[in-house]
Write a structure and sequence with these properties.
Length: about 220
Amino acid sequence: MSVSSTDNGLLTPDNCAVIFADHQAQMFPGVANIGREDLLNSVLLLAKTAKIFGVPVILTSVERLGLNGYVTPQLLALLPDRTPIRRSSMNAWDDANFVAEVRRTGRRNIVVAALWSEVSLAMPALQALADGYGVYAVVDASGAASEVAHGAAIRRTEQAGAVSVTAMQLLLEFQRDWARSEHHDEVMAVINEHCCACRPVSPRLPNEAGIDSHPLIR
């Protein structure tokens, strides 16, 4: 991966786009490498980071006959102007509409979070790298069926040239200097809400029929 499209190796709000792949209600219960409350916390932290700094965001999900449910409502609520790109392929990079949307952002670095890591993160990440994109995998906003599966997916993408980051790392990398006052208060509010010492109890996830009977944390 070339660092020519970064700020001396660092990401900025102007040189990347953020992708959320398959963060769907029925996918969360199958995650075993990270606590589901921690996972949702990181997903929402990443979404708020993108929103604060005006970074392009792409949502995508597999929604074939309701197979995996709808995108987590908390994520949709944070990004009401983003319509998820629906697809049938497990690999988002196989979907022409998705790839076209990535290209429309004009960004050569993509920050990816996905469920599951071994499928929805690894496959598009590998192909994006082959197409010359810089890929940054948000490890704590992605989940897999096991710790082994998550670890193998992350290692495979790193060996191909991807870089692992965390949601909080990205927030602080965008802020970078506390003398930058434009987003200071918003950043501090997100840190206070999502840091481990003061993390709120996660709300329940509705099922795809819209009934509040599908708790994220069981």
